[in-house]
Amino acid sequence: MRKQPLVVIVDDDVSVRESLANLLRQLGYAEKTFESAEELMASDAALNASCLILDIGLPGMSGPELQRELMRRGYSIPTILITGRTAPDLLEEGVIACLFKPFSDQELESALDAALREKG
Fold it and tell me: Taking Cα atoms as reference points, which of 68, 63, 66, 56 lies closest to residue 93?
């Protein structure tokens, strides 16, 4: 049996985490959710992640800061940023897409496809 790609979600909004987790399961992905960047960093989930979905506006360490810290530590994980506000001026190395809430299932699925192609 083929192993499902693991998508890690970090968002401080429980309803967003739950709805993304449900959608990912429907799309055939394994998922793991975290409320904060610090919670993810305290786990070993980044070791097995095929893709990250990070909220830009996390309290504490922001999504982009988390992505940069993971890269600094040697993790090269394709990343999808999500935001209810404005996007960062540039998409940094490893960032595949920035989706604006509310985004469609199709937008997310396209971004995931691109991220997993990047992961190879």
Answer: 68
CA 22 from centroid of its chain's CA atoms:
14
The DSSP code sequence of 71-97 is: HHTT----EEEEESSPPPSSPPTTEEE
The DSSP output letter for 68 is H
Structure tokens at 66: 């988390």
Kindly list the structural domains of the chain, giving each domain's residue range(s) and its CATH number in brackets, ordered by start: 6-119 (3.40.50.2300)
pLDDT by residue (tens digit) across 69-97?
999 999 999 999 998 876 665 566 788 98
Give me the residues paired with residue 52 across strands: 8, 79
Residue 23 corresponds to which amino acid?
L
Q: Whole-model pTM?
A: 0.92
Q: What confidence tens digit (pLDDT) does each residue in 17-67 have? A: 999 999 999 999 999 999 999 999 999 999 999 999 999 999 999 999 999
Exposure pattern of 20-49 as b/e (b: 16+ CB <10 Å)?
bbebbeebebebbbbbbbeebbeeebbeeb
